[in-house]
Structures are given as C-alpha cells and as structure tokens.
Design brief:
- The chain is α/β, with parallel strands linked by helices and 457 residues long.
- Strand 10 and strand 11 form a beta hairpin.
- Helix 2 packs parallel to helix 6, helix 3 packs across helix 9 and helix 10 packs antiparallel against helix 11.
Length: 457
C-alpha cells in the first residue's frame, strides 16, 4: 500500500515535528523573516552569526520546513537557478562565472555548516549524472556540455560505457557529470538548521500565517511585527500573500520512493557511488539513492493548479504516481515490481523569466529571495549569505552577483497562465514520446516551440 501525501517520505522517516508556539501579540524587531524554510533559516542563521545583537523574528504559517525544504528530491546542486544568457545580459560573462563559482561554493558551505552544527542529514557529495537514453537526447547532451564548458563550468561528458559503469540506466548513450552536487535527506537538514537557529537565540513562531507584508511591517492574526527589515522567504507559497498572486508561479513537483531494494537488485543497478541521477528528457526526472537503500524519483506530474493554488499535505494524483513508477522501471528495469512506499508533492517558485532573484529595498526595508525553479537547496544558502550582506549594508562579492536586485514582469492573469503551463508540459510530454517511442534522432520541434512560449531561454 502506497502512502500518499502526509507532507513527504522524508518526514515519515523522522516524524512530523511538534509545533512551536505561534506569535503572542505584536512586537518589534530588527529583522522579521517571513517563512521558515531554507531561505528564511539560512538568512537568520548568517545574520545572527554576523551580529549576535540583532533582534530577529521568524514567522511561519505551518512548521519549519513544511514546504519545498522538507519535500524536495534531496539534491544539493550547484546548477544555476536561471539562464546564463539572461544573467550575462546585465552582468557579462564574468558575472555569470562568478555566480557559478558562488553556487559551487554553496554546496561545500552547506556541508561544512552541517558538520559544524552536528546536523546528520545523510549527505554524500559524489556529483550528479544527467543521462541521455534516447538518440535525440545525445546531441542535446553534447551541446549542453559544450555550452557549459564555454562558461568555465567543469562539467564533463561521459560515453555510454562510462555512464553504465556508474549507474546501469537502460539504453544509456552517454551522460554529463558534475562534481558539484551532493545527496541530502532534506527534512533532516531543515530540522537541524532550525534547531541551530534557535540555539543562536532566534525565535521561530509556527502556526502563524502572515496575511500582509508592507514596508517595515508583517501582519498576522496574532499581532503585527514591526521591523527595520522584513524578508519575504516564501518561495512557492508567495502567491498566497496579498498583492503577490502573479509574482512567482507555484509549480508543482511530485516524487515517489520505493521500498528498500534487496542486494541483488542493487548488484544489477550499480550506483555504488550514490551520485544524483537526472536525464535529458524534456519533462525530466530527478532521482537519488537514499541512505537506507531506496530510490526516490521525481518529476513534474500535474504541474500547476488554477489560480496559483497550493495543496495542503502533498497528496499526489494517481496518474502521476503511475508516470513516475513507469519512468523508474524504464530507466532501471531491475526495479520492476518494487513496492512504492510513498508518494508526495510540493511547490517551487518560478519567475516569468525562469531566473532566481534576491534583493533588498533599503527605503522600504523589504527584502526577498526565491524563484529557484527547482534548484533551491543550494541556492537558498547563497541567498541567506547574500541577504545578510544586504541587511548589514556591506558591499561584497555576493551583493554584486547577477541575480541580486533582479526584477521581472509578472505572470499573465488567469486563465492564460493555467493554459500556458498545462500546454507547455503537454508539449514536453509529446516531444518525449516522439523522441523515445517515435525514434527521432533530433530534438522534437514541439519541444522547441514549448521552450519559446515558456521563455525558458
């Protein structure tokens, strides 16, 4: 029997946390952080470490790590949350290279903080493979590796034999490999980070929805927090705030996890290095080998709900569970017949130009970070350190990166964005069908049209 919803398998493994007390009346602070996911927690952590005298308050609608921070696929990846070309348009080639190096460093920074704070989160840094398993995917893979190397990225191309020696993906024709990626149990990381923040003296008020953010103000049903700076760290739930419905689109992503697999199955699959696994399909998948010998695999499923609505506990549609189970069996046939223990979903934030952003308006005191388009585990750490420097008024290498202060136009009103997102992913699925079952050897023109409509490049 597959458990469906209940936030995530990661929380099923460690147990849902007891709720911290909500805000008890109006108060004042130097910094008010709205949202107790990775972004908010990293921001509070680095601010308090830099200036222990700061009065910092964190407000959270549910519990720390309830959103994407406790539901994601467990990739600490240095992949840029945005387009190199778009970032280069404002900051040039060197600006993009600096951003990529900052992301590479963020992966190691998370690992270092986890060790320093005694956070045991099943972290293994052995890189990530993105596999081409259909003829049309191979030229696309080679082009992506060549383009990345032109930006001074140290990704490398593996041939079919080198790929299968790492992970026995059926039909593998090649893969890209980057060392800048680590596996993590995301709920363990966010739980440990929240405790580290509390040890520094920062209160986290849970079950405290923020109904409105205004200059120097965060309003809740239990009182108002007035602060010199108010940081919006709400990612996929941003659309639920007053005036923010079209700021970032809450994109849905879904995962399943198998029961622990027996040794003979792992002997056929390989995967001894516990690298992260992705593929070159348009409606791509992402997967990890968990510390207890399962496979967690995710994809978009039903990507968007009308009106930017979000779910309550991660329940996943049966058709999405089937799609993910079929994708797992197709890529790793040795898993055929394996039990699916849990399915769940969550939302991530997508700006209209698909590029993440962080910034602070010193006049209003309003700061923000997010729009991570699915690459948030490491990008949130960079965001926390960047917001620290912005709040403290320090001009640093981080505050000069291309994503800082970036603003883009809002998403289209309904029903246009619902039709656009649904149509985009229907097109990607059709393109994948043409490239696999249809036997195409070049990228489907349907995918090219979808990319143009989505403005992903």
């Amino acid at each position: 029997m597959t458990l469906n919803g209940g936030v995530s398998h990661w929380y099923r493994e460690i147990g849902l946390p007891a709720r911290r007390p909500p805000l008890d009346g109006s108060t004042e602070a130097d910094v008010c952080v709205v949202g107790a996911g990775y972004t908010g927690l990293w921001t509070a952590y680095y601010l308090k470490k830099a200036d222990p005298g700061l009065r910092i308050v964190i407000l959270e609608r549910e519990f720390a790590g309830y959103g994407a921070s406790g539901r994601n696929g467990g990739w600490i990846t240095a992949a840029l949350a945005g387009s190199r070309r778009r970032f280069a348009a404002t900051h040039g080639r060197q600006g993009v290279i600096r951003l990529q190096r900052a992301m590479n460093a963020a992966v190691d920074e998370i690992i270092a903080v986890a060790a320093a704070e005694n956070i045991e989160a099943d972290i293994v840094k052995n890189g990530m493979l993105r596999v081409a398993h259909a003829p049309a995917q191979l030229p696309r893979l080679r082009a992506q590796v060549t383009a990345a190397q032109a930006w001074d990225d140290d990704v490398v191309l593996l041939d079919a034999e080198e790929t299968v020696a790492r992970i026995g993906v059926a039909g593998a024709l090649g893969a890209s490999f980057t060392p800048h990626c680590a596996r993590v149990q995301p709920a363990k990381l966010v739980r440990g980070l929240a405790r580290a923040v509390e040890r520094l003296g920062v209160p986290i008020h849970e079950s405290t929805p923020v109904t409105r953010i205004a200059p120097h103000t965060a309003e809740t049903p239990y009182g108002t927090v007035r602060a010199s700076y108010v940081i919006r760290a709400t990612e996929g739930f941003t659309a639920g705030l007053a005036g923010e419905r079209r700021t970032w689109l809450p994109m849905n992503s879904s995962l399943i996890v198998t029961e622990p697999l027996p040794g003979q199955v792992w002997d056929r699959i390989g995967w001894a290095g516990e690298e992260l696994l992705g593929d070159m399909s348009h409606a791509y998948i992402y997967a990890q080998r968990t510390a207890d010998g399962r496979i967690a695999i995710g994809g978009r499923g039903r990507p968007y709900r009308f009106g930017s609505r979000t779910d309550s506990d991660g329940r996943t549609h049966a058709s999405t569970v089937r799609q993910l189970r079929d994708a797992l069996a197709r890529l790793l046939p040795a898993t055929l017949g394996a039990g699916i223990a849990h399915a769940w979903s969550g939302v991530l934030g997508v700006p209209r130009d698909w590029c993440s952003t962080a910034g602070l308006d010193r006049r209003t005191g309003l700061g923000w970070a997010g729009g991570y388009v699915g690459h948030g585990v490491a990008t949130t750490n960079l965001a926390g350190r960047t917001l620290r420097d912005l709040v403290l008024g320090d001009e640093t290498e981080l505050t000069g990166l291309p994503w800082v202060g970036r603003r883009v136009r809002r998403w289209e009103p309904e029903p246009l964005r619902w039709l656009g997102v649904r149509g985009m992913y229907a097109a990607y699925r059709e393109a994948d069908r043409q490239e696999t079952a249809g036997g195409r050897v070049t990228t489907s023109p349907v995918a090219k049209v979808a990319d143009w409509v989505a403005r992903r490049e």
